[in-house]
Design brief:
Largest sheet: 4 strands, antiparallel
Number of strands: 4
Number of domains: 1
Low-confidence stretches: none
CATH topology: YaeB-like fold
Radius of gyration: 12 Å
Helix content: 10-25%
CATH architecture: 2-Layer Sandwich
Order of helices and strands: HEEEE
Mean pLDDT: 87
Structural class: alpha+beta
Number of helices: 1
Strand content: 35-45%
Distance between the termini: 17 Å
CATH class: Alpha Beta
Shape: globular
């Protein structure tokens, strides 16, 4: 389980709330589309990575992972 201090927890919560308004916030965060996926994206917030996908038909965002960056983050 990812252990966070209050500052990092609140920062991640801010990102997730922002995704409700704008699911692809290129201008607001360090965001890239994950190659090899249809609708997968990565947001970098410090040393933490938020991996998520967008299902437009369902009008939903699925957060796949929130974890510290390491060599297995994108696998």
């Amino acid at each position: 389980m990812l252990e966070l201090d209050e500052k990092r927890y609140n920062a991640i919560l801010e990102v997730l709330r922002h995704l409700e308004i704008n699911p692809v916030p290129y201008k607001d965060y360090d965001l890239i589309k994950i190659s090899g996926t249809r609708n997968g994206y990565r947001i970098r917030k410090g040393k933490i990575r938020i991996l998520y996908s967008i299902e437009k038909e369902l009008e939903s965002i699925f957060v796949e992972k929130i974890e510290w960056r390491d060599e297995t983050t994108y696998k």
